[in-house]
Amino acid sequence: MSFNCRFAPSPTGPLHIGGVRTALFNWLLAKKNKGKYFLRIEDTDKERSKDKFKQQIINSLSWLGIEHDGNEYIQSNNISKHIAVAENLLKKGFAYQCYCSEEEINEQKEKCKKQGMPYVYNRKWRDAKDLKIPEGVKPVVRFKSKISGNTIIKDLVQGERNISNSTIEDFVILRQDNTPTYQLSATVDDHEMKITHVIRGDDHMINSFKQKQIYDAMGWEVPYFAHIPLIHSEQGKKLSKRDNASTLEDYIKIGILADALRNYLLRLGWSYKDKEIFTKQESIDLFDLNGVGKSPSKLDLSRIYSINETYIKTIEEANLFIFFKEYVSKYKKPINKSKDAILLKSMAFLKNKAKTLEDIWNNSQYIINDKIEIGTEDKKLIDDMSKKIIVDFIAEYEKITSLSRETLEPMIKSLIDKHKTNFKGVGQPIRIALVGSRFGPGLYDVILSLEKSEVTKRLKNIL
Questions:
Q1: How far, CA to CA in Å, does 61 sit from each of 225, 252, 290?
Q2: How far is 282 from 419, CA to CA, in rounded Å?
Q3: Coil, strand or helix: which one is 435?
Q4: Which pLDDT does position 243 carry in this prediction?
Q5: Which of 300, 291, 288, 280 is nearest to 231 (CA)?
Q6: What are phi and psi of 5, to 5 degrees?
Q7: 98: number of Cβ within 10 Å
Q8: Contact 253, 22 (CB under 8 A)
Q9: Would you give the DSSP letter of residue 101?
Q10: Rounded distance between C-alpha atoms, residue 361 and residue 342, angstroms
Q11: C-alpha span between 90 and 143 (Å, rounded)
Q12: What pLDDT does residue 372 have?
């Protein structure tokens, strides 16, 4: 069979991390089965939909490596088809016009609230033989949901789900202004796009039962449904856009690599044996819906950092440098191009203590900035003994003609012996002078990354 999957975000805000995972699972299922993956922009909410969010969604998914087939499908371009289907349902007797005023609906809701019951529309206009159509009231169009019996959905993740039809209200498919609602538009679009598999969050389960009734009424083939559990915050609550780690942008701006984040999201609620790290191709080859769990997944930032650190350590330095430069161009002050060669050469050690691209930025400040700032606490560590060590280091350092770790190590050892101290005693003041902090990359890496004249200049400055 052919596989057609889709991701259908609304461009009303930045792309949520839960949505990204939904897009990923749809993309993987389609690619695994040599099918098509489409991006549908559900922009029918004209007040809240913004072009900037649409572009951000497209760019974000592309950054992550989730490329859609063909052009984006823009839902608002298809409204006339949605309305035509609603009129068809009216004609076939599967829908009806409802003239209840807003006040009436609010009264019903209030009554249900007082009784502690969920609100279900009372179907007043479902059989309107004895009702007089009020003047000046525009009707909504409601779908005539089944009243008796049960509806079954064989969900590919949750298993067989069975609900009583009496619990599904006669939901609105056309508003008073003749605009279609989500239930109608999503169903018509999925049919028009020949979507075979609808993968989305399990908060959409009730929508699938409603939409199945529209499929059945129109005599259309019903797609397979797969409802994946939601992502919860580290506190165990449903992840909301107010959380600092809820949107894709939150991760990009702290310097998480695309491959690392995609790997993390793949493993968030899906597993394959004990495997943790997957290449892009392995993700496609091994993915299936049987590996998706039924329980909510909890976001774990420390795990994201850990996976990102693995990717940073194993990536080729030339590629890492490209990602670093892209990151800096978006979120940091521009770096002088004259620093590119030394930064590229230094990636080999700058990445060693880095969990993110932000860490590499922080670790490389001594290279990026010609003038370093030494913090108050670090300045206190430059005592008389430290200054004597620096003076002796300069004297020996300037004698070396061929700089390497092999020529530096015996020199440092002789200073340790001369001043009756240890590696920290010698290395700390030198590092503070060169980097501006007692923390940072390894001492030998720092010395060898800077020009010889620059090392001498910084050491003399601190004296």
A1: 23, 12, 24
A2: 56
A3: helix
A4: 58
A5: 300
A6: -120, 165
A7: 21
A8: no
A9: -
A10: 14
A11: 8
A12: 87
